[in-house]
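We treat protein structure as text, and this decision shapes the records that our systems exchange. The remainder of this section carries one protein's record, kept here as part of the documentation:
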Amino acid sequence: MSLDYNDLQRRMDGAISAFKHDLASLRTGRASSNLLDPIHVQAYGSAMPINQVATVSVPEPRMISVSVWDKSMVGAVDRAIREANLGFNPIVDGTNLRIPLPELNEQRRKELVKIAHTYAENAKVAARHVRRDGMDALKKAEKDGDISQDDHRVKSEKVQKLTDDTISQIDSLLAGKEAEIMQV
C-alpha cells in the first residue's frame, strides 16, 4: 500500500478551483456573467441554473442582461434573481431582464468580504479533509507493517507540506479578492 500523492494533489487542487469559482461569483465593482452563477430557477419541476433557461450577457460595465428563452419563465427568473439576496433589482422588458448594478456601499463591501472569508474557510476545511485522509492511510500502512516509522514521518511531512502550500494559496487568493472588493 502506497500513498498516492497525485491523488491528494488533485483533490487539493479541486478545493482551490471550487474556491476560485466561488470567488468569481462574488461581486466587485464590475458586472460579470458569473455573478448569477449561484442562482437557480424553479423551472419545469426542478431547480435549474439560470444559464440553462436564459442567456446571460454583460452589455456594459454596470449592467447584466438576461435573455430568457421561454416567455413563460420570465416571472420565475425574475423571482429567483430577487430572492437570491445578491442586492439585484431586475427590470423586466418582454423576455429580457436588465439588471443594473448599484454602487457598492461600505457596508455591502464588508458583507462581501465576510462571504469571501466563509468561502475561504470552506476551501481550507476541504484541504484539511484531504490531509486527514492521507494521514489515516499512512497510519494504516505503518500499522500493517507496509512502511517503517521513519517512512511514516517523512511521508506525513510531505502531506503536511502539500496542505500548507494549498492553504497559503487559498489565503493569497482571498487577499487578492478582498483588495478587489474594497477598492473604491
